[in-house]
Please model this.
Amino acid sequence: LALGVQAQTPTPTCDSCQVSQAVTAGSGGPFNAPSGLGIDQANGIVYVTDAGNNQVQLFSLPGMTPLSGTITGFNDPTGIDFFDGCLFVGENSQWVKFSGGVTVASVNVSGQISSLSVDRTTGDVYVAINIGPGPGLLVFQSTVAAGVTTYVPATTNLTGISMNPSGVVLNATSGVTALYVGDGQNSSAHITLFTKLSESSSPASVSFSSPTTVVNTATMGSGAYPTQSAVDSNNHLYVMGYTSDLFQMFDINSNNGTLTLDHSCTIGGEPVGVALDTLGNLYVSGRGAGFDY
Model:
């Protein structure tokens, strides 16, 4: 079980990646299936969903020193994000929002959340569910009234799409919000792009473009099962391949068309989570026995 860290200075192609530091435990004990990664950039804290131990562990930046304050009481936490001073954690049957260590919102869902991402423009919460009565994508619209933020399930045209979403990440550039979804449906690994077209609050609804496959099985490898993703300030999309043990970086040249593979590394440890800090360091969590670098 490991948490890998490396500088974001990859060569165009390589056979292996060098890790600058590996972490196998925190103040809450050894990892058991570390999954998602969320970073509080302002305070220099990395949050890791420790799914097998039903907790979230904390580490300081840049040295990855374990911090006290492990958050317990979850049920298989996986998806995680940090936005506007708040921590968002997705687990089995619900996602929870924390502010100052206090639960300020909890929203029930049907199924296991695999990934969670907050829209930096609107504050809406995007949730990927890959195990449950109906795998799919859910959007919860953020509404603020009298200083209190509430979340309302939004009607979208994402329902009914055949996919098994395991990762979801948003990228807003030039006023356009792009939604990238990792999908391992029927072992046909691919990344799907949806562009947000419009949003309404009465009733709560969000409209997206038709799905476009921007990374296909031929690039990722059959059965790669892409998990969580991240986007950096240079418009690179980072994708973890759980069953293929691949870390791949794609160049987002535009909001349409196939993405260009810039970098690919074979690593061990069944990579799941990925996050970047403002210094350009890349953090990767893996559920397996460790990474091979």
